UniProtKB/TrEMBL annotation:
GO annotation, biological process: proteolysis
Organism expressing this protein natively: marine sediment metagenome
GO MF annotations, alphabetized: cysteine-type exopeptidase activity; dipeptidase activity
InterPro entries: Peptidase_C69
Name of one Pfam family that matches: Peptidase_C69
Signal peptide: none
Protein name: Dipeptidase
Length: 590
């Protein structure tokens, strides 16, 4: 259908009240949540943010837990390019969630079937970068991490007037920008001009470079917006995280009161307050300061009142700043934007936080019966209904449906191609392994580029990690110990080796940057391939070792019973009303 005709139909439907009543969010929300808790997405992604003076080595760090469960997990490397004067960049709609059967084509070729009709002037030079679902880091050490935060329903704009959706926006940013501030201004300007939304609504991006990190939040401005209106096609706000602070975004808006007179810490679109006033989201007459999150993405729940579905925000502060003694009863909207951690964080600390499952807290998922006899924290990952009643379960940072997890490091004491690292772990982070990808490498393993949830493929890197994860679930408390040993061997050694790799690459760089790129490429690709091979082997070992719920010792070629915990056996006896076996009668002496 002609896009102009389609847009006209959409406008007519809206005018008659049909569009508004039938409009649904394009972001997946928890399937069985209480309607109030489902008002804004609670399932999406977790972003952890570390300022350079809050890290052990001076790195600026961010994470992205891509928590989709059904999305494309493949990765690409896009080389730098020079472009002729007068050339254009086509703009495409890219859904975060849509995939195709591999036989029909891979996502990062198929998306070009959805051209928006918009072409913008191409710039003379575009930077090299990595991307998965979003653009993550370029060769200038600009890094981006994402978390869906939602917005008010009336703000959503799924019409063709919104030319820019989130995936496209991040690709454009890493193609064209060198610093966090530059990227924020660019993303704000292009969405104001060409409209933001279509596939996406309220989103947060952690935007970092070697010197600083910002939380950038962007939302659509409703389905009636058109470029001819002369008004901004997006509304956005950005706040800088202090260098000695850490922060987190767990699918909730994080920016509160803003001070645009302090441009070193705040940036925003021109309509940041006026749009709220016009739509009744903020009344300046009441005498209270404007609060971004309360105006555009309010949520009144705490870790306790949500019964764990909104625990991530509190839990992060509980981990990094326990001395603050923040109560889980504190409403999330009242929790701080950022905090100074009790101790500076290393990259391994950050990786470990991405694996947190609220162990030892009132929200521990293996308390009581929930984890089963082998304390599996991945049981009941979503709220459930029983007898028309909804029961919430803990939604922790280390959710078991991650497509992949990233930890980015930006380091100002090294050349950009060496200073930037994306640590990538495919699949669920508790059973996966982080692998380094330096910003200056010129290719990634072929196995990163392929794979699909619905077709098992031994050529796909992701399936190696799912293979381990699947076998670990059955006897989790036992199998996770084997996984931890493998993580320590491969992930731990890669982290420890970073300083050595940095130093050698830097020496090569001083002589010839191309040689440094080649060295880093060989190191990253070879390391990744070894890790993938190790995880396929680990999956085989778990299958053999715990086969049939026994313990098979390959060294002694003997089997042993897999012991079930006493508490579980007692509950089994109680629930099934089992009767003990009577002891055999003694034979009477003749």
């Amino acid at each position: 259908m002609n896009l102009k005709k389609l847009f006209l139909i959409v406008c007519i439907l809206f005018a008659t009240g049909i569009l508004l009543s039938s409009q649904v969010s394009t972001t997946p929300e928890c399937e069985n949540c209480d309607s109030d808790l489902a008002e804004f997405p609670t399932d999406g992604c977790t972003v952890i943010i570390v300022g350079k003076d809050a890290s052990v080595d001076g790195s600026v760090m961010t994470t992205h837990t891509c928590d989709c469960n059904m999305c494309d997990w493949t990765w690409r490397y896009v080389p730098a390019a020079d472009h002729e004067s007068g050339s254009v960049r086509k703009i495409y709609h890219i859904s975060q969630y849509e995939t195709w059967p591999p036989a029909e084509g891979l996502k990062w070729e198929k998306y070009k079937d959805d051209f928006t009709g918009l072409e913008i002037p191409q710039i003379p030079h575009t930077y090299a970068y990595f991307h998965g679902m979003f653009g993550y880091m370029n060769d200038q050490q600009l890094a981006i991490s994402e978390s869906t935060i939602g917005c008010r329903d009336k703000m959503k704009n799924s019409t063709p007037s919104a030319k820019i959706d989130l995936s496209m926006l991040t690709l454009l940013a890493v193609e064209r920008c060198r610093t966090a501030r530059e990227a924020i201004r660019f993303m704000g300007k292009i969405t104001e001009k060409h409209g933001y939304g279509f596939h996406d609504d309220g989103e947060m991006l952690a935007v970092s470079d070697p010197n600083e990190v910002w939380i950038f939040e962007i939302m659509p401005v409703g389905p009636l917006w058109t470029p001819k209106s002369g008004k901004p096609g997006s509304i956005w706000c950005a706040q800088r995280v202090p260098d000695d602070h850490v922060s987190v975004c767990p699918n909730e808006s994080r920016i509160g009161e803003i001070n645009l007179k302090n441009p070193d810490y705040f940036m925003a679109s021109s309509n940041v307050i006026s749009y709220a006033v016009k739509n009744g989201y903020y009344d300046p007459k009441i005498g209270e300061p404007f609060n971004w999150k309360k105006a555009y993405s309010p949520s009144e729940y705490s870790a306790t009142s949500s019964r764990g579905t909104r625990v991530r925000l509190w839990r992060f502060f509980d981990i990094v700043a326990p001395s603050s003694k923040i109560s889980p009863d504190t409403p999330n909207m009242e929790l701080p934007f950022s905090v100074k951690p009790d101790n500076k964080l290393s990259v391994q600390d950050v990786m470990n936080i991405t694996r947190d499952k609220c162990e030892g807290t009132p929200f521990d998922p293996v308390r009581g019966l929930q984890g089963g006899p082998f304390k599996n924290p991945n049981y009941l990952p979503r709220p459930f209904k029983l007898d028309d009643l909804t029961y919430n379960t803990t939604r922790f940072i280390s959710v078991n449906r991650a497509e992949y997890v990233t930890v980015t490091q930006c380091r100002d004491w090294l050349p950009d191609i060496i200073g930037g690292i994306v640590w990538l772990a495919f699949g669920a982070q508790d059973t996966s392994c982080f692998m380094p990808l330096y910003a200056g490498i010129t290719k990634i393993p072929e196995s990163f580029k392929i794979g699909d949830h619905w077709e098992f493929d031994r050529k796909s890197a992701r399936w190696a990690f799912d293979y381990v994860d699947f076998h670990a679930q059955v006897v989790y408390s036992h199998a996770i110990k084997d996984v931890r040993k493998a993580q320590e061997k491969w992930e731990g050694s890669a982290v420890a080796k970073t300083l050595t790799v940095d130093k050698f690459a830097h020496e090569l760089y001083k002589k010839d940057p191309a040689e440094a790129r080649q060295f880093l490429t060989d190191y990253c690709v070879n390391n990744a391939n070894r890790v993938i091979d190790a995880w396929w082997e680990l999956g085989d070992q778990l299958l053999v070792k715990y086969n049939h719920l026994w313990l098979y010792d390959i060294k002694t070629r003997k089997t042993n019973k897999l012991e079930f915990p006493e508490w579980w056996l007692r509950e089994l006896v109680k629930y099934d009303k089992l009767e003990p076996q009577e002891p055999p009668k003694k034979k009477e002496d003749k």
